[in-house]
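hiii so um. not sure if this is the right channel but i have a protein structure encoded as tokens and i wanna go backwards to a sequence. like what aa goes where. can anyone help
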């Protein structure tokens, strides 16, 4: 009787010892998996890590790790151990399980682990390669949401224990946040990649468009030049013969004589427009060696000299403050300021003497010029229009001009990478601001 009791104690001791040994082994597996986690960076590496470093070492026959797809509809096999992993870290035809289907699909919906002791008695069991009698399915949960399932089957009934469940739950918990982080990183990388691709593609398209635009601009410029240049000659002939007829033939009826004057006026106006167009088309993008540091005080003296007739005829005054130097194409900068100042003298108020003030200041990396006048002003609704070609706001009889001056100024400013804006009120004078880059 005594001998038997000693034997019993020995058996239970051995059992406890074996249990302790397996616990220690499992602990060691978890420990080494947790160590290796820091080196696993993609979601794929992490699930393969679970399959190879945990499941395989626990001695399970088979295991499949599923992750939920982005739409949250299907579980897709991402890693496996055993017969469902025929090639090293390579899954050719991943198993896909719709959410809710089979034991794995159910666990993904409930978020509760399951141990099936005998699969023949569970109608949810999905037979894939061969029937195995027991199964364990553990959800991978992140912030209360199932993101995947670890599923393992065994050919023997009653194979899986509570101990297995604890270990798989621990491993699933450890992997979850890592998988989510890795997935976010993967998505970010993919997003960055597609963004870079898009930027590259858009740049190519843009370059293509710029080239096309440059070509059509050049075509247009040479067309405008040729048209305005070549049309001038026949027009000059028309005008001189009209004048000849006028001088020689005095038998016109008063009505015909009036019509004849309209014809001459029209032809002369056309000549003026063609000259303007020619001047406009001559303003071209310049080479960098045509850009010089310009003393704007000297340039303004020159412009005042050029406009002496207009200044004297209008009794006008042009006040110029001490101006800063700029970098630019001399001919174009003269054209620019001369056009604006001549407008200021031309669109004067008939009741007052025109006063034009030119000033300048440095603002960050711009030199800002202001040309202010006390003339007739411009209604706010026309402020954008005036920089377009042939846009004039007043009847030709009151103010002469072809509506090209400001379009030309805008073109020159564009070539200099600057900008021009206008502030004005009808009857309240006008102020043009010109900004040109400096430094
Ligand atoms: N300082 C100004 N005051 C009032 N109106 C102006 C002034 N400058 C320009 N404008 C208005 O803007 C229009 C366009 O100016 P722009 O210099 O292009 O043409 P223009 O002077 O009529 O003709 P062009 O300059 O070709 O001789 C003018 O016709 C005028 O109506
Ligand atoms: Mg003008």
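sure thing!! here u go:
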């Amino acid at each position: 009787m005594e001998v038997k009791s000693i034997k019993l104690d020995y058996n239970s001791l051995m059992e406890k010892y074996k249990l302790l040994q397996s616990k220690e082994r499992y602990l060691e597996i978890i420990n080494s998996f947790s160590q290796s986690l820091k080196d696993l960076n993609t979601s794929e590496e992490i699930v393969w890590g679970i399959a190879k470093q945990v499941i395989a070492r626990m001695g399970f026959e088979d295991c499949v790790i599923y992750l939920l797809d982005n739409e949250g509809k299907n579980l897709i096999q991402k890693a496996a151990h055993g017969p469902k992993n025929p090639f090293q870290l390579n899954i050719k035809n991943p198993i896909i399980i719709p959410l809710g289907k089979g034991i794995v699909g159910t666990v993904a919906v409930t978020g509760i682990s399951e141990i099936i002791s005998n699969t023949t008695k569970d109608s949810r069991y999905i037979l894939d390669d061969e029937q195995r009698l027991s199964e364990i399915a553990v959800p991978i949960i992140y912030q209360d949401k199932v993101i995947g399932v670890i599923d393992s089957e065994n050919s023997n009934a009653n194979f899986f224990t509570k101990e297995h469940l604890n270990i798989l739950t621990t491993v699933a918990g450890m992997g979850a946040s890592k998988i989510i982080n890795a997935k976010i990183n993967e998505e970010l990388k993919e997003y960055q990649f597609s963004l870079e691709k898009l930027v590259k593609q858009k740049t190519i398209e843009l370059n293509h468009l710029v080239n096309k635009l440059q070509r059509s601009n050049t075509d247009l410029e040479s067309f405008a030049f040729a048209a305005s240049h070549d049309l001038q000659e026949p027009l000059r002939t028309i005008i001189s013969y009209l004048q000849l007829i006028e001088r020689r033939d005095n038998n016109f009826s008063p009505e015909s004589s009036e019509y004849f004057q309209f014809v001459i006026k029209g032809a002369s106006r056309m000549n003026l427009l063609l000259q303007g167009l020619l001047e406009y088309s001559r303003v071209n993008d310049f080479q960098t060696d045509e850009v010089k540091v310009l003393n704007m005080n000297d340039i303004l003296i020159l412009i005042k000299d050029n406009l002496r007739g207009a200044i004297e005829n209008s009794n006008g005054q042009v006040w110029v403050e001490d101006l800063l130097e700029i970098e630019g194409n001399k001919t174009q900068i003269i054209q620019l300021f001369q056009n604006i100042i001549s407008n200021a003298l031309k669109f004067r108020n008939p009741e007052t003497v025109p006063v034009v003030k030119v000033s300048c200041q440095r603002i960050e990396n711009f030199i800002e010029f202001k040309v202010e006048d006390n003339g007739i002003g411009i209604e706010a609704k026309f402020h954008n229009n005036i920089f377009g070609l042939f846009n004039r706001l007043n009847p030709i009889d009151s103010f002469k001009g072809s509506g090209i001056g400001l379009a030309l100024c805008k073109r020159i400013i564009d070539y200099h990478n600057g900008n021009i804006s206008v502030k004005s009120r009808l009857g309240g004078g006008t102020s043009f601001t010109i900004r040109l880059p400096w430094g």
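oh and The mean pLDDT is 90.
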